[in-house]
Amino acid sequence: MLKAERKLLEWADRHLQWIVIAIFCILGAVIRWPLRDLVSGDSYYFLLPWYEQIKENGLSQQVGDYNLLYQALIALLTFLPLEPLHAYKLLSVIFDYILAAGAGFLTASMVKQEKLWKGTIAFGAVLLSPLVVLNSAAWAQCDAIYTCFGVLSLLALYKERHILAMVLLGLSFTFKLQAVFLLPMFLFMYYSRRRFSALLFLIVPLTMCAASLPSVFLGRSFADVFLIYFSQTSSYPYMAMNYPSAWLLLVNGMSSSAYELLRLPAIVFTVAALAMLMLYWLRKKILPEGQNVLIMAFLLCFTCVLFLPSMHERYGFIYEIFAIVLAVLIPRTAPLCVGLTAVTVCTYGSYLFNWESVPLKTLAVLNLALYAAYVYTLCRRMLPLRTEE
Hints:
The chain is mainly alpha-helical. The protein has helices at residues 3-14, 16-32, 41-57, 68-77, 84-109, 115-127, 130-138, 143-158, 162-175, 183-193, 203-211, 213-217, 222-232, 256-283, 292-307, 317-329, 334-352, 360-382; strands spanning 240-241, 311-312.
């Protein structure tokens, strides 16, 4: 072996982790590049026209269902020499990488051995996940942005940096109302650990207002920050919209009459299901500490999306990211994560490529089965970690 060759290999040994991360980053870009010109229905009918409205009118008026901070970011993008579609996708892809890094840090913080390598694996698994790739690079959606802040808020909560956790949760809410799926975890942490005041929850709306200041200075009101979300709650009067909800076992998800009949019972059932999980953990004295924090957050988010009405296929994005991290931390859940990803890829494919490979009701059965398997597997996993009386 040549001396230069030996030195090169020794250098590679010393920096192997960073080499692997660099390879993941390059592969992430390579996979996303061919999708840059794909125009989804959402892009054609909503995102691109909204871009032109923002470019013409600035931030002085509401455009679509964007919240004020995201609308401000799009306004900044209009000054760049980019095609509108590419601008949307570039912003989302940047946050794909930040989200993957957040998932890596969350993973590394929850293990005692091989922290760096397990964090690196989680980084690559999230960055190269077909759900993450399709959501941003194909669909031009921004679910990676609110989920990024949601993952970081859970990491801060795990580390008991409660003020930072509330700020990050507020930033997550600033981009998407779906950040509400994390709220049960924060409430359970507050009740079970009792290490921070309920007054800290006020940081969430304060952060939302602070993050929206650029738009407020240009004529919008702080009330708009919240009114946008109130209007969204009544925008989709259906039990499910291309999401394999548990309610599809009973009704046609796109039936407005079924929505009127089952909307309130579905909400009550969801609250009851969340309460049952929390009461089980409390009775078994399972505290939100260690990997339990991630397990509980995943199960609570999954419960919300599976049983609440008016869910879209992309609303499961945050619990699907948690599932990837869990697959790295608890390898026995990896097959369940693969199944979860496959179910969602089918729903993405039916929308993006007009290809329904599996009927939605069948996917609903599979989704419910995966949920039951996760609850059984993870709750049994938490039992050895319970505290003694």
